[in-house]
Amino acid sequence: MKNIIFILILLLSFSCKSQSIISLEQAYVYSKSDDGLPETVTYVKDINNRLDQFVGTWKGSYGGKQYEFRFIKKINFGSYSVKWDELIGRFLVNDSNGNILYSSLNESNDENTHLRGINIQNKTYMLNFSGNVEYCNDRGVVFIEVSQNNPNIMYLSFDRDKGAFDPAKCPNYSTFVPLLPKTKMTLTKQ
């Protein structure tokens, strides 16, 4: 009887789909492969607490604009089958006269902040940004990296999506200045 119970337990364990947790670093390696994440992965976890260095309020200026970013870390987050530990960002951009050009600081729904983490690559964390997309395709990937010499300094740059846009809504696409700078800007932790 013990053998039959053991065999049944063994068969059940093989028939159940196993679930696995992997690190952010492992997820990045998988993202570079043709196969992507294995089907068994259910959670991409910040095992090494790499995201903690980015959490907080960061301020800086660039090109006559003032920036304030607020990053929070979400655990086991998302509405897909694979949950992630990721950063959610909210930010404010003011022009040189103090006029608000963009703000997501008051967005209460983390799913709607338009600045959400993708993955970590070495020391750099990548986030998707999609703001003002109906006008001149102001979206792409934001790269943030904390200085190795000073944990209160962070660098941010933006790689604007070169995808499709509506020329009727953006006749000045080639000269349009996105909200976020393409070249590296420096932010200071508050």
UniProtKB/TrEMBL annotation:
Residues 1-138 form the DUF6705 domain. Residues 1-18 form the signal peptide. Keywords: Signal. The keyword Cell division does not apply. It comes from the Bacteria. This is DUF6705 domain-containing protein. It comes from Chryseobacterium tagetis.
